[in-house]
Amino acid sequence: MGVSKPVSSISYVSFLAVYFSFYTITPICSTSLQYGFINCLHRNTNINFPLENTFFTPERNASIFIEVLESTAQNQRYLTKSMPKPDFIFKPVHESHIQASIICSKKLGIHFRVRSGGHDYEGVSYVSQIEEPFILIDLSKLRQIDVDIKDNTVWVQAGATIGELYYRIAEKSKIHGCPAGVYPSLGIGGHITGGAYGSLMRKFGLAADNVLDAKMVDGNGKLLDRTAMGEDLFWAIRGGGGGSFGIILSWKIKLVPVPETLTVFTVSKTLEQDAGFKILSKWQRVADKLVEDLFLRVFLSVARNNGTKTVTMSYIGQFLGEKGTLMKVMKKDFPELGLTLEDCIEMSWIESIVYSSGYPTSSPPPTDVLLQAKSPLGEVYFKAKSDFAKEPIPVLGLKGMFKKLLEEDAALVIWTPYGGMMDKIPESEIPFPHRNGTIFMIQYYRSWTDSEKRPNKRMKWIRELYSYMTPYVSSNPRQAYVNYRDLDLGENKNKNNSKVNFIEAQIWGAKYYKDNFSRLVRIKTKVDPDNFFRHEQSIPPLSSS
Ligand SMILES: Cc1cc2nc3c(=O)[nH]c(=O)nc-3n(C[C@H](O)[C@H](O)[C@H](O)COP(=O)(O)OP(=O)(O)OC[C@H]3O[C@@H](n4cnc5c(N)ncnc54)[C@H](O)[C@@H]3O)c2cc1C
Ligand SMILES: *[C@@H]1O[C@H](CO)[C@@H](O)[C@H](O)[C@H]1NC(C)=O
Ligand SMILES: *[C@@H]1O[C@H](CO)[C@@H](O)[C@H](O)[C@H]1NC(C)=O
Ligand SMILES: *[C@@H]1O[C@H](CO)[C@@H](O)[C@H](O)[C@H]1NC(C)=O
Ligand SMILES: *[C@@H]1O[C@H](CO)[C@@H](O)[C@H](O)[C@H]1NC(C)=O
Ligand SMILES: CC(=O)N[C@H]1CO[C@H](CO)[C@@H](O)[C@@H]1O
């Protein structure tokens, strides 16, 4: 670091020719910001970065700039014309570029956002609603994956997707897996900072529970591993949310055993087929108590079918074993669902990832779709919220919920079972506190496309649904999953008033982290007292109160 080096690729020279204005202490126009940043990067890194591959500005080529900005951004709600845009995008190709980016941003007083996979629900990885100007550091070129079967571990760089991670593990072994999320396009960098649950969670916990080490760059541009950062900071980054403590370069994750053959199934019931909610009620009573090998979610989806609206309840299961064993489990504990042998499909773990990914599947599922960077969901606008159920929702509550669901033409509610390993890990082991006593997590999700107008109506509807659910879910605090970021929680009305922000932070902080929030604030105060790493819902340091 700090070794100055005379880089002068052709593009750099021509770039300087265009942007002749010089950087001054307070950057007043964007081009001086760009000039200052590039100049500083050159002074602070000894590895070449060809500008045309790493540096994207609207001035140089607006269409390429927008393409790069939108490339992994998942929520179209944050890509509309009125949303603030970064001044420029920098894509580091070497870890030292990230160190230099931090040193230079700090020196020049530039606010930045960091993006790994771009799945943030409120777009905070690529849009700042609280600072102007801001820049985007996009880690998508850092996606190396080193699987070490002998050591039973993997080192994975932040910009890799979990689909790639799973694929690379399966390439080396049929009996090793990794307990991260369900959707293959998730970026490993942001995903694990919030916990990261998936179909192996009931047996092995979250990805964050299985992290052994990490490499991170702190606010001084220093590269830290677990030993160098110390146990407090290592605790904070495994579930304390992204963008608060530093930039994660890579995670070292423990691999877990999976059987060579496992079983998946989908059983769907219409409202008519589950009149009286006998099946749905039974699911709520058993979901967290079933054997840990079984992960059985319920998708409640509203759709128009031949002109009439209906809610379909799809029971989507993954069982770490053969179908014969699964049938015995289901006959004993959940016969009401009526699972048959014909519903059961046996496959490998990696195929099961594709099966539940949302990508179109054939039989057997084509696993190379996991290397695709594109999300299976396509370009959608969405708003989502989360809840945790500690008791089964009574039939009366379900009736009201379905009535509310049927007000919309399309909506999705996902129930994810807890229990098993999730009960056994203490609440303060890592910042993620949603443990023993949770039956299931709820996600409310409303998406729409360009052709479907009236976004405000959608937002209003999901807020009403959330409000309706109040008596049936966790309270004091009403818990929420930080990876399903929700800017409604502790509304950010006073965007530039740190005192008010701290009070608001205590509201969403309690929801995301319960009592662990106070420890996160203590650690933040120690490692980043000036709040260099910040966004709409980053952990605030105490000094700002
Ligand atoms: C379609 C879809 C499916 C999902 N499925 C699941 C699921 O199955 N399980 C689950 O647990 N969650 C799921 N999520 C939520 C997901 O875990 C979070 O959105 C997560 O933050 C995504 O990580 P990312 O790197 O893709 O996001 P990004 O938007 O890149 O980042 C998210 C946050 O982390 C910060 N960040 C990004 N990279 C870094 C880094 N390298 N160092 C420090 N901070 C960083 C960002 O600034 C931002 O605050 C899903 C989300 C979507 C949109
Ligand atoms: C921007 O890049 C695109 C794609 O490479 C190219 O077709 C276009 O001509 C470029 N526009 C300008 C103004 O350079
Ligand atoms: C926020 O407040 C600080 C200090 O009062 C000020 O310097 C800064 O420009 C403000 N930022 C915005 C976005 O208003
Ligand atoms: C829709 O209606 C048509 C004609 O009545 C019928 O043939 C078809 O099966 C229906 N489709 C569904 C999915 O119910
Ligand atoms: C979970 O909580 C229940 C009720 O408080 C308790 O009986 C049980 O022992 C706890 N389980 C674990 C694994 O801690
Ligand atoms: C150190 C600290 O504050 N730990 C707390 C983390 O959260 C759990 C549960 O919410 C508390 O029990 C701990 O005291």
From TrEMBL:
Domain FAD-binding PCMH-type per the UniProt entry, residue ranges: 82-258
Cofactor(s) required for function per UniProt: FAD
One family name in Pfam for this protein: FAD_binding_4
GO terms for MF: FAD binding; oxidoreductase activity
Transmembrane regions: 12-37
Domain of life of the organism encoding this protein: Eukaryota
Compartment(s) of residence: Secreted, Cell wall
Keyword field: Cell wall, Disulfide bond, FAD, Flavoprotein, Glycoprotein, Membrane, Nucleotide-binding, Oxidoreductase, Secreted, Signal, Transmembrane, Transmembrane helix
Main location: secreted
Family: Belongs to the oxygen-dependent FAD-linked oxidoreductase family.
UniProt cross-references to PANTHER family, sorted A to Z: OS08G0158400 PROTEIN (PTHR32448)
Identification of the protein by name: FAD-binding PCMH-type domain-containing protein
Organism, scientific name: Arabis nemorensis
